[in-house]
Amino acid sequence: MPKPTPSPSLILATLALAVYFVGAVEFMLAPMLTPLALAFAAKPADVAWLVSAYAVSYAVLAPLIGLLSDRIGRRRLLLPALALFAADALAIAFAPSLTFAIIARILGGAAGAALTPTAFALIAETVPEDRQAGAMGLVLFGLTLGIATGPTFAGLLTDAFDWQAPFVAVACGCLAVLILTARILPPSVARQGQPLKTSAARLLDGAILRPNLSKGFWLGATIAGFLISGEVLRNRYGLSTSMVGLSVTAFGVGLATGNLAIGRFTIWVGRPETVLIFAIALIFVTQSAFLATDPSLGLAIGLLALWGFASGLAAPANTAIQASRAGSNAGFVLASSESMNNGALLVLAPIVASWIGGGDTINAAILLGVCTLAALGVNLADRKSQTKTLPCLNP
């Protein structure tokens, strides 16, 4: 008998589990910069290059892997990506030096480049357009759980055992999800893709370029800001590693709420473009207030939660816009967008980590705020451009 086709909801749940480790692997470093610096006899700013190495690999490989996913099918890339995440975590756990660990992060970057945009491209080709924002929000909820629980588990496991324990736990989890994903996802379907030159030309189309640039600006700034948030809390309030991990979980809780609310928000306002503009404006306000002011610990945690909520709305809204405009090039366009995100992170993370190491939160707030405002400006220009073209599309 032929194997029954899994339900769409089961596929979405499986994709959510798969991308869970993207958030866990990347964001669990937030409370671990100081323990890793001690382990490798380095400075926290040097350890931040673990993030930058991941970003370089991701940024360079994402477009090529996205183009490949448009041709050979999504499953053939999702499964190896989970295996690479496991290998990356083990390589860092048993790295003899920080240099080795930074080089090993190339594996993690390749895995992220294969997994996240491919999962969203799969949604774009299997879910009706009017439901894509909600579906992407559900899958992003898995990513959010990784962001929310990754720092917490990393802090608790580091305090209870040592800094290697979180990486070993991630490796075991990736292998378990790999087995489940292999059983759930339908077979890959090879398709005839467009030539690289044709696909690349699509990236210069204003309708594609504007949301790609926007996401690069606001998401790169948001990730860089979140990665230093743990050190900001540690320096201001004298928190332990485990307490830092628990405190930054507020950002993840906000993210989860935003992910789950995006479908209803889109229905209320009618267009994901409007949701995105509101969300980016809220990111700017909360991110700037967290970094540039000196609030009480309770208020700081509340700002982190609102910052996360705004990001939880912005990510699926931005991705749905990109996927709906990209059509058959969804894998390539979404992957190229991820390159922009990680390119921005590559530049921003070492700079703001160095400033935070010296206690300078004001310059960090200014730099990240400028990037977020740039994203807001791009989206306002995009809405104006799209409004002008709508009568032409619907005579």
Q: How would you describe this structure in keywords?
A:
globular, mainly alpha, 395 residues, MFS, Growth Hormone, Chain: A, single chain
Verbal overview:
Helix 5 (75-93) runs antiparallel to helix 8 and helix 6 packs antiparallel against helix 14. The chain starts with 7 loop residues before the first helix and ends with a helix. The chain has a single domain, classed as Growth Hormone, Chain: A, CATH 1.20.1250. The chain has 15 helices and no strands. By secondary structure, the protein is mainly α. The protein has helices at 8-27, 33-39, 44-47, 49-72, 75-93, 98-126, 129-160, 165-184, 196-202, 206-237, 241-269, 272-292, 297-326, 330-357, 361-393. InterPro entries: MFS, MFS_dom, MFS_Efflux_Transporters, MFS_trans_sf, Sugar_transporter_CS, Tet-R_TetA/multi-R_MdtG-like. Keywords: Cell membrane, Membrane, Transmembrane, Transmembrane helix. It is a multi-pass membrane protein. This is Arabinose ABC transporter permease.
